[in-house]
Design brief:
Number of strands: 20
Structural class: alpha+beta
GO molecular function, one term: acid-amino acid ligase activity
Pfam families: GH3, GH3_C, GH3_M
Keywords: Ligase
Protein name: Jasmonic acid-amido synthetase JAR1
Distance between the termini: 71 Å
Family: Belongs to the IAA-amido conjugating enzyme family.
Length: about 575
């Protein structure tokens, strides 16, 4: 039976959002009630003594705040095939895998139809606001999206990355058509057996439909930058394919060759046009609008660990707007970008009060204290303050520590608009120093300014706390776009050390309680090898985030980094 074509009414969606956010406190109460009623039979909730109560006070009194580690024993049973009501009222049939780039191994998280509903609601809401500012006509989207292998758990449940579970859902494609964002590539390319072959075919599909492309998208900014870095290397081969109507021999997967043969016809005129446009570019600046003249914007998650890729993405995008996609995680969604004109560095996300129940642990004054403050409700947070998010959702997570730190930038009606600050657990710390992913990113940006003077750039970076020396010290791994002089790299190293402004770090460095920062410059392609490692584990590029701090649990990544060190420098900044 054919699925009914979905229709989107952006004005009605905005009206619904406005009504809901004006009454966020009541909507939160009703959302919690609905979650607890639907899952009241779950063993996890039964054992906590809620006895059918669904009010926030009883919920907070009975249900503890948990991390993923606390739930592993329950999730393990689900993964192994126990179909009883463990975390949810209805049995879980699908498992999502997180990217695994933070802890070194993927986490298992339940996925169900109700989570798919919240995913589509977020997509529709942000599209309504986006389309008001940047209206789309009928056309296609060049989407660098990839489905990882959809495997089975020990107990026979479908298992894939969170993005794969979304992309494979029949409702996803229908929704994309309704959102005027239909992918120009066939499914065989999205779910191809080899990432590099799929990427090549995505680029080829984009060129074939170059006049129809209105949006360039990937889940993360990293994937878009990677796609156009690859284009720089293969563009002449792509032109040759289009000119001759024959697919490159680098594509060996039969499913891809069959699918592309239906699209690829000899077109010397198009090949000449692409060749001329690429030849006329200066250092590939403005490549995206040059290839796709009708594109309206570039879209993807560009906040947090994706910010370091914005400079290169802007280079490719030229004058095109960069729009940051919505805020969520493998565990569930939080908020939609309803201010799409804000640059990604300033992007905020309005929490949708009906997609989960949200609590916020205040972080001010909480760093030194052993006593954690009581979490606040969605409408109780204050502008300018930072919080850690606690999530209760429709997928069996109750008072779950997401591990994200957010800052409240304002309110839309009575729902907060959040800015992602950093992952709370990613700290470089040896003594009394506390540096987050954001602090690391800012330090690398400062080092990048030294390289920019030599017309070089940072390709990617990671870090390590090395306690094998006495005292311990920070190690920063940088991959650079070319050869830098000894003098420049020494200054990079000193600039990195001086750029960690945390008072605990500076004072510890001055009294030699922390040793000189070490810069290790790695060979070109090192971070590509790290990506390949994650792909070999079944991860999807759509979810890949470079690990910014490698610890003992990430020993394979650490091994790759250490085996590819070309030069080493120690700071003389203190």
């Amino acid at each position: 039976m054919l699925e009914k074509m979905e229709e989107i009414n952006p004005d009605r969606l905005i009206e619904e959002f406005e009504a809901m956010t004006k009454d966020a406190e009541n909507v939160q109460r009703e959302t919690l009630k609905k979650i607890l009623e639907e899952n009241g039979s779950a063993e996890y909730l039964q054992n906590l003594g809620l006895d059918g109560r669904t009010d926030p006070a009883s919920f907070k009194a009975c249900v503890p705040i948990v991390t993923h580690k606390d739930l592993e024993i329950h999730i393990e049973r689900i993964v192994n095939g126990d179909s009883s009501s463990i975390l949810t009222g209805k049995p879980v049939t699908t498992i999502s895998l997180s990217s695994g780039t933070t802890q070194g191994k993927p986490k298992y998280v339940p996925f169900n139809d109700e989570l798919m509903d919240t995913t589509l609601q977020i997509y529709r809401t942000s599209f309504a606001f986006r389309n008001r500012e940047f209206p789309l006509g009928s056309g296609k989207a060049l989407q660098f999206i990839y489905g990882s292998k959809h495997g089975k758990t020990k107990g026979g449940l479908a298992a894939g990355t969170a993005t794969t579970n979304v992309y494979r859902n029949a409702r996803f494609k229908n929704a994309m058509k309704a959102l005027q964002s239909q992918c120009c590539s066939p499914d065989e390319v999205i779910f191809g057996p080899d990432f590099y072959q799929s990427l090549y075919c995505h680029l080829l599909c984009g060129l074939i439909f170059h006049h129809e492309i209105q949006v360039v998208f990937s889940t993360f900014a990293h994937s878009i930058v990677l796609a156009f870095r690859t284009f720089e290397e293969v563009w002449e081969e792509l032109c040759s394919d289009i000119r001759d109507g024959e697919l490159s021999s680098r594509i060996t997967a039969p499913s891809l060759r069959t699918a592309m043969s239906k699209l690829l016809k000899p077109n010397a005129e198009l090949a000449d046009l692409i060749y001329k446009r690429c030849s006329g570019l200066s250092n590939w600046y403005g490549l995206i609008p040059e290839l796709f003249p009708n594109v309206k914007y570039v879209y993807g998650i560009m906040t947090g660990s994706m910010e370091p890729y914005l400079k290169k993405l802007r280079h490719y995008a030229g004058e095109l707007p960069l729009l940051s996609a919505d805020y969520g995680s493998s565990e569930g969604w939080i908020g939609a970008n309803i201010n799409p004109r804000l640059p990604p560095e300033s992007a905020t996300f309005a929490v949708l009060p009906n997609i989960g129940y949200f609590e916020f642990i205040p972080l001010r004054g909480n760093v030194e204290s052993n006593m954690e403050p009581e979490p606040l409700g969605l409408t109780e947070v204050e502008v300018g303050e930072e919080y850690e998010i606690i999530l209760t959702n429709v997928g069996g997570l109750y008072r779950y520590r997401l591990g994200d730190v957010v800052k409240v930038m304002g309110f839309h009606n009575s729902t907060p608009e959040l800015k992602f600050v950093c992952r709370r657990n990613l700290l470089l710390t040896i003594n009394i120093d506390k540096n987050t992913e954001k602090d690391l990113q800012l330090a690398v940006e400062e080092a990048g300014k030294v390289l920019a003077e030599e017309k070089l750039e940072v390709i990617d970076f990671s870090s390590l706390v090395d306690m094998s020396t006495d005292p311990g010290h920070y190690v920063i791994f940088l991959e650079i776009s070319g050869e830098a002089s000894e003098e420049v790299l020494k200054e990079c190293c000193n600039r990195l050390d001086r750029s960690f402004a945390d008072a605990g770090y500076v004072s510890s460095r001055k009294v030699k309680a922390i040793g000189p920062l070490e810069l290790r410059v790695v060979w070109g392609g090192t971070f590509q090898t790290i990506l390949d490692h994650y792909l070999s584990l079944g991860s999807a590029v759509s979810q890949f985030k470079t690990p910014r701090c490698v610890g003992p649990s990430n020993n394979k990544v650490l091994q790759i980094l250490c085996e590819n060190v070309g030069k080493t420098y120690f700071s003389s900044a203190f």
